[in-house]
């Protein structure tokens, strides 16, 4: 685990299971249909139970699909986290707009959390699994976007929860490069 302080916020990199995190909210790597899936999405619904999908059913009926880059909020069901923020990452095809959409996922999630007074948040490495986004490209986007958004919204803790040691290393090196530049 690695801890970095910025804007009075603990930025934590940790290797582990997102669904076990005890931050107030978890961010889910969902799909636009909000129908659940594999990866993080599947793990959240498995551990969180059916109440989360019940809330997504209502959201889907009332506001339709969730476009890539945007986010919706539900309760945490049986999870330790009280809330889940479901955001939809870009499906990686090497397009020019994908970095912006990925950054929007982190921005939208933090803004939605701030609107609900949520002060601690855990992110997975959005889009780097089934959606195929190369994690070496995604990590600096995630870290830079979150650090920049802290200029606008106050949090006590933001965690980046990486599933594998390899992914953790990628984030750790990306954070070191960002910290060196800003020091
Ligand atoms: N905890 C932390 N990280 C996890 C976990 C977990 N329990 N499970 C998977 N991951 C990691 C993956 O290794 C990857 O690095 O989360 C990252 C995101 O991978 P995915 O969950 O596959 O999400 P994404 O690439 O954004 O694809 C989204 O997959 O599950 C479906 O419904 C979802 O269609 C959507 C698509």
Say how many strands there are: 7
Helix and strand pattern: EEEHHEEHEHEH
Give the N-to-C terminal Cα separation: 21 Å
Query: What strand line-up does the widest sheet have?
Result: 1-2-7-6-3-5-4
Distinct small molecules bound, one entry per kind: adenosine-5-diphosphoribose
Helical content (DSSP H or I, runs of 4+): 40-55%
Strand content: 15-25%
Q: Helix segment count?
A: 5
> What best-fitting shape do the alpha-carbon axes yield?
globular
| pLDDT < 50 stretches | none
Radius of gyration equals 15 Å
Mean pLDDT: 97
Name the structural class: alpha/beta
The biggest sheet amounts to: 7 strands, mixed
Describe the structure.
- This protein is of the alpha/beta class and 183 residues long.
- It is built from five helices and seven strands.
- It has helices spanning 39-48, 50-63, 98-115, 135-149, 165-182; strands spanning 2-6, 9-15, 25-30, 71-75, 83-88, 120-123, 157-162.
- It has a seven-stranded mixed β-sheet, with helices on both faces.
- α3 (98-115) packs parallel to α4 and α4 (135-149) packs across α5 (165-182).
- The longest helix is centred in the middle third of the chain and has 18 residues, at 98-115.
- The radius of gyration is 15 Å and the shape is globular.
- The site of adenosine-5-diphosphoribose has 25 residues, from β3 and α1.
- Adenosine-5-diphosphoribose binds at residues 17-19, 29-31, 37-43, 89, 124-131, 161, 163, 167.
């Amino acid at each position: 685990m690695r801890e970095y302080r910025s804007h009075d916020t603990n930025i934590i990199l940790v290797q582990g299971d997102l669904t076990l995190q005890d931050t107030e909210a978890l961010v889910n790597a969902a799909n636009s249909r909000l129908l659940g899936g594999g990866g993080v999405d599947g793990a959240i619904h498995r551990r969180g139970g059916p109440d989360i999908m019940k809330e997504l059913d209502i959201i889907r009926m009332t506001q339709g699909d969730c476009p890539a880059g945007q986010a919706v909020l539900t309760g945490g069901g049986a999870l330790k986290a009280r809330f889940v923020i479901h955001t939809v990452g870009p499906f990686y095809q090497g397009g020019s707009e994908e970095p912006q959409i990925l950054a929007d996922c982190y921005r939208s999630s933090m803004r939605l959390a701030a609107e609900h007074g949520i002060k601690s948040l855990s992110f997975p490495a959005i889009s780097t699994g089934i959606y195929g986004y190369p994690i070496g490209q995604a990590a600096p986007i995630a870290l830079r976007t979150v650090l920049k958004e802290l200029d606008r919204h106050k949090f006590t803790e933001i965690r980046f929860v990486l599933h594998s040691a390899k992914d953790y290393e990628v984030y750790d090196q990306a954070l070191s490069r960002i910290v060196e530049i800003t020091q």
